[in-house]
Write a structure and sequence with these properties.
185 residues; alpha/beta; Rossmann fold; six-stranded mixed β-sheet; globular
Length: 185
């Protein structure tokens, strides 16, 4: 196990449609602006690895950093949004509301496995990284780092920079990114 590896989890920019409207929306105009501002905050290329969720809103957010740093991110499926197998778009929104108010101890095996996959990917990092992902992913890692079993221990804003360090096989929250009362989905 590698220790002392820092990584930044970035929540994607504002998307053009909600979780219950489009299965894979891109960014809206505000989201594109947020992504550009995030890339500017990260500054010059310092050699960190780049990873992104395969979903459009995350890839489009990462695109701003790829342009700034002049290199491509690796698409990492384990950083994708929470899975909702078998749910229609309409049902996803209703399901998400209840899920976000829940506790990880109450979640079914497939969601426990999804969360474990996130942890497995991150514990495998051997160099510092920037990863663009999703609200629930950021919260899952915050929960693992702080021992908080709530699904939503935090309200990361779009393009917030959430800083962590992996030390001695455990996640440590270094700095929570910008928070806000946000519409999730």
């Amino acid at each position: 196990m590698v220790s002392g590896v820092g990584f930044i989890l970035v929540r994607h920019g504002q998307q053009s449609a909600g979780f219950h409207v489009d299965p894979d929306p891109g960014l809206d105009k505000t989201g594109v602006e947020q992504a550009a501002a995030m890339a500017a905050r990260l500054g010059a290329d310092d050699g960190r690895l780049l990873f992104t969720s395969p979903l459009r809103r995350a890839r489009e957010t990462m695109a701003a950093l790829e342009v700034r740093w002049g290199r491509s991110a690796t698409v990492e499926p384990r950083m994708a949004e929470v899975p909702t197998p078998g749910l229609s778009l309409d049902a996803r929104g209703h399901w998400l509301d209840g899920f976000l108010r829940g506790d990880w101890s109450d979640q079914p095996d497939y969601l426990q496995a999804w969360r474990a996959g996130i942890a497995a990917f991150l514990t495998g990092l051997e160099r510092p990284a920037v990863i663009v992902s999703h609200f629930v992913v950021v919260n899952a890692v915050i929960g693992l780092a702080t021992g908080d079993s709530r699904v939503t221990p935090s309200m990361p804003d779009h393009c917030s920079l959430n800083r962590f360090e992996l030390r001695d096989g455990a996640f440590h929250l270094v700095e929570k990114g910008a928070q806000r009362k946000t519409v999730i989905g």
